[in-house]
Please model this.
Amino acid sequence: MNTRNKKWMSMVIMLVLALVLAACGGGNNNAGNTGSNAGGETSSNGQNSGNAGGNAGDAGAEEPQIEEGAQLLVWDNSDAEFEWAQYVAEEFTKKYGIPVTVENVTHTDAPGKLQTDGPAGLGADVFLAPHDHTGNMASAGLILENFYSDEIMNEHIDAAITGGSFEGKLYGYPIAVETYGLFYNKDLAEKAPETWEELFEMAKAFNDSANQKYGFMYEVGNFYYDFSFIGGYGGYVFGSDNTDPNDLGLNSEAAVKAAQFVKRIHDEILPIKKEDITYDIKDSLFKEGKLLFNVNGPWAAAGYRDAGVNFGVAPLPKLDNGEHPTSFSGIKSYYVNAYTKYPEAASLYAKFAASKEMQLKRFEITGQVPTRKDLSDDPTIKNDPVVSGILEQAQYSIPMPNIPEMQTVWGPMASAFSLIWNENIDPQQALDDAKKQIEDAIKLMQ
Model:
C-alpha cells in the first residue's frame, strides 16, 4: 500500500474510533490548523508529512481525496494571463467537478495581500506570485509545501525548482520562466551585435536626440536590469549561491566595474536623465521605430507585433571580459494558501495548472516561456523567434534570490545606480552607501 493510501486508511480507522479529525493527515478543513501545520513534520527523505496530502513521493500514484464541497478561488494577472487562468479553471472544473472562481490580483500584489487576507480566511486558495517572494511567504507560514514535489522536480527546469524552494523545501508549482534580452528593429539593423563594442558603434551611428531617436535604452535604476552587468563581471548579491545574507557582494570590485560600465553607457550613447528612460517611454519609441536596441522581456512581444514592428530578440552582448551579462530570471509559480479550507483540491489545481497541456496553452495565449522540460523541444516553442532568443539568454541568467533579505536590496541598489547615472556620483561611494543601508535593514530582520 502506498503512503497516501496508508494515510487515508489511518484516517478511516481514527474516525471509527471517534478520534479528532485533525489528528488525521488528510482533508483538513480547519483553515487555522492548516496554516499552523504548513511546515509539517519532515520525514527522513525530506518530504513533508504534516499536512493533508503532503507526501510528495507518492505523487501521481492516484488522485487525492478531495475535500467534500471544495470550491476554489484563484488570483492571477490581467489580460492574456487572465484569459489563460480562466481556461485552466474551466478545464479543471470539467475534469474534477470542482467550481473555480478567478479574480484579478497581480502576481506582484498577491504576496502582500495574502498577509492580511490569508489569516482572515479571505485569501485565494491558489495564487500566482513571483518566486523571489517564496522565502518571505514560507517564513511567515503563509504557503503550504508542494504536495507533489518529487513529480514537479522531475518535470521542470532547475531554475524553476530553485526559485520556488526555500530551505530545502519546494513550495511553488512553476508556471512560466522569464528573463530579458536584446530586442532590435530588423528594419534598422541587419543583425544584433555580439559584443558591447559593436552595440556602442551601431548606437552612436543611429543616435539623433534632436528627433528623439536613440540607439540603445534600458531601464536604468531598476536593479532587475542593473544586476546583469554586476553578474557579467563576476559579482553577486548574496554569498553561497544567493543564500547567505551575511555575505553581500554589492560593492565588490566586480560591482564597481559594472557601475562604471553603466556610466559609460550614459556618457557615450544615452546622456539623458533616468526619468526619461522609463519603461513606457522606451516601449513607445521602439514601437515608433525610434529606438534601435531595447532591453526587454517576452512580455513585450505581443505589443510590438500589434504595432507592426519587425523585430528580433538576441542575448545581451558580451562584455569586454568576454562574458554575457547575467540577467535575472524570474519564475512565476502558483502557491497554495496555508489557510485554505481545501488543501487537497488547491494543491491538485496548482499541479494541474503546471501540467504540460496547460503550460503549452499558456504559451499559445500569453507567449510566456514554459518551465517544463518536455516542452523545450516542442515545435511550437522551439520555432518561435522570441522564445528562442530569450531561452538563449536564459542560459546566462540566474534566478533572483528568493530569501527574505532580498527585499532589502531593491531600493538601495536602485538609488545607487540612479545617483551614478544622474548625478555622476563615484560608483564605489554609491555602492558602499547602498551596502550599508542593506546591512542595516537586514539586521532589523534578524
Observations:
- Residues 136 and 404 are 5 Å apart (CA to CA).
- The longest strand covers residues 328-336.
- The radius of gyration is 24 Å.
